[in-house]
Amino acid sequence: MRVCIYPGTFDPVTHGHLDVLERACRMFDRVIVAIAENRDKQPFFSAEERLKLVNENLADYPTATAQVFDGLLIDFAKAQGASVIIRGLRAVSDFEFEFQMANMNRHLGPEIETTLVMTKEGYNYTSSTLVKQVAEYGADVSEFVPANVYAALKHRLEEST
Prior knowledge:
Elements: E1 3-8, H1 15-27, E2 30-36, H2 47-55, E3 64-69, H3 73-79, E4 84-89, H4 92-108, E5 113-118, H5 128-136, H6 147-159
Parallel strand pairs: 1-2, 1-4, 2-3, 4-5
């Protein structure tokens, strides 16, 4: 069985994330959405909230599961028996960072490959950070995120005002 890790902060999960997940599920027998704790980024949603939001979107992806992890991605991938880490590219500007990460992961775990896939046209300018920023100013971000995420964003923003 070919196991793939799809890591990210997913703060929050977007349609672009789900696009990459859909394609990963076509390529691999099992896909683990690895939600990074990533306290350094000061996430908008807690790791538990992000896990819940992702899990609520996995019904259409029966070979996918989600887990929160802390520490080195490569260690998590090894512990899960993964052979591949998949990452999405929105634009050429993402490549430099992803290239560096892939090379470091190859150094730390040469048995695990990294596969980079381009997001579907229309998602190439969408990021979780941008979605949160424009939502904070009252913009409608419903076309960029699943309905449960949109509701959670609205609720969180209403709480903070």
